[in-house]
Amino acid sequence: MSGEAQGLCVDGSKRVYALWAAGFGLLTALALFCWLLLAPFLQARDAIDTALGRKEVQVFGTGPNAIRLPVTTTLSRTMRHQEDALRQLGGPQAAAPKLAVYLRAPRSLAPHRRTAVLLMSHCGELAVPALTRLLDDDEENIRWSAQMALKIIHARQASAGALGG
User: What are the residue ranges of helices labelled H in 89-139?
Assistant: First the structure.
């Protein structure tokens, strides 16, 4: 009887270890998902809000009845917002993959795709693959924006090549 009891105990503990291993595997997969996809998406979304100037508000009044209105955006302020957004993403080189993740998200989660494409135009050669994919997008304004961004990148490379030698 004790031999059978020991056999059951070993089999039962193997199942417990297998369940723990499966649980840790799922947690690891979730952490990997958050690190590779969710964090860059959220960073890009926050930076796009900066690029749109949504973080600048003027407050009228105090307390619960205070009115918060966005500050009127001018061209110089828009350029500054774009620079701030790219800096927030870690610079143009680090921004390209994060913006690419944002652009692959469903439109309901990423409503400001055109602004993301505009920011990609500042990322140089790293943005070209993502922008090239967008040339086949369903939305005409995204296709057009991707074409313009690619032309901007090409023009910057050509002028840098002309200046460099």
Answer: 92-104, 113-120, 128-133
